[in-house]
Amino acid sequence: QVQLVESGGGLVQAGGSLRLSCAASGRTFSIYVMKWFRQAPGKEREFVAQITWSGGIPYYADSVKGRFTISRDSAKNTVYLQMNSLKPEDTAVYYCNFREEWGQGTQVTVSS
């Protein structure tokens, strides 16, 4: 199993930036891709971004493309989500994910 712990959420004004982190532990040698999802109140959980572990190839949802950057530090078993030009509609709980494993989530609130 892989355990995931997110951090870095908070309250920011529209146009601001935040960087989320997700630290993995356990059977980290099995990781081949890491993903970020988010869930806003009253909405379904939605995909945000993913990155392959060995090649570092990113992929983004259209809603965040050009504003968010996903990266990973394999040595630290950590994946990051740099979020710039934040909008109120980015307000959600952000989760990192590997296969069936999920972190506890970190709240991001963007005020207008």
Q: In this structure, how is the largest beta sheet organized? A: 7 strands, mixed
> Radius of gyration in whole Å, from Cα?
13 Å
Order of helices and strands: EEEEEEEEEEE
> What's the end-to-end separation, in Å?
40 Å
Mean pLDDT: 96
- Percentage of residues in helical conformation: under 10%
What is the number of helices?
0
Q: How does the SSE layout of this entry go?
A:
Blueprint: E1 2-7, E2 10-13, E3 18-26, E4 33-39, E5 46-52, E6 58-60, E7 68-73, E8 78-83, E9 92-98, E10 101-102, E11 106-111
Write up what this structure looks like.
It is a single chain. The protein is globular, with a radius of gyration of 13 Å. The protein is built from no helices and eleven strands. A hairpin with a 6-residue loop joins strand 4 (33-39) and strand 5. The strands form two sheets. Strands 2, 4, 5, 6, 9, 10 and 11 form a seven-stranded mixed β-sheet that branches. A four-stranded antiparallel β-sheet has the order 1-3-8-7, with no helix packed on it. The protein is an all-beta fold.
Descriptive labels:
7-stranded mixed beta sheet, 4-stranded antiparallel beta sheet, 0% helix, 56% strand, 112 residues, mainly beta
